[in-house]
Automatic annotation (TrEMBL):
<dbReference type="InterPro" id="IPR036728">
    <property type="entry name" value="PBP_GOBP_sf"/>
</dbReference>
<dbReference type="GO" id="GO:0005549">
    <property type="term" value="F:odorant binding"/>
</dbReference>
<keyword id="KW-0732">Signal</keyword>
<protein>
    <submittedName>
        <fullName>Uncharacterized protein</fullName>
    </submittedName>
</protein>
<dbReference type="InterPro" id="IPR006170">
    <property type="entry name" value="PBP/GOBP"/>
</dbReference>
<dbReference type="Pfam" id="PF01395">
    <property type="entry name" value="PBP_GOBP"/>
</dbReference>
<feature type="signal peptide">
    <location>
        <begin position="1"/>
        <end position="17"/>
    </location>
</feature>
Length: 142
């Protein structure tokens, strides 16, 4: 019964979660810090599909967004702040799901993506986010 409930919640979110998403506090701060505008970022960073790793603006944006989550060796720091950030990004997209379900989905996605690295912190951030997006999307392919 519990698995049926989870599937129904995920289906509901997949069908009704297609509205424009709200950016996280960190993303909004980076948009301001980098003197960008939200429309420009929305145009460059697709909600569906791969985020490009060859665009300087996108690289700087993700370097900023992941500044507290990537160490000097270019590795993701899997601390509470990182887990909370990813969970909050998922909550924005799973508005009707219970907190415990979002937390479970975020934890699984993080575990599958935390080892990815790029040539720079910005590229690492993009590659990790692409992985997280792909893993997140797999939950809705029912």
């Amino acid at each position: 019964m519990r698995s049926i409930t989870i599937i129904l919640i995920l289906c509901f979110v997949a069908v009704f979660g297609d509205k424009p998403y709200e950016y996280s506090k960190i993303a909004k701060e980076c948009i301001t810090t980098l003197k960008l505008n939200e429309k420009e970022i929305r145009d460059l960073v697709p909600e569906v599909g791969e985020i490009p790793t060859d665009n300087e603006v996108v690289l700087k944006f993700f370097e900023c967004c992941f500044r507290d989550f990537i160490n000097n060796n270019g590795r993701v720091v899997e601390n509470k702040k990182f887990k909370d950030y990813i969970r909050s990004c998922f909550e924005i997209r799973m508005t009707n799901a219970k907190h415990s379900l979002v937390k479970l989905v975020a934890k699984d996605c993080i575990n599958q993506c935390k080892h990815i690295r790029g040539k720079s912190n910005g590229e690492t951030g993009i590659k990790v986010m692409n992985c997280l997006k792909n893993k997140f999307q797999e939950y809705f392919e029912v």
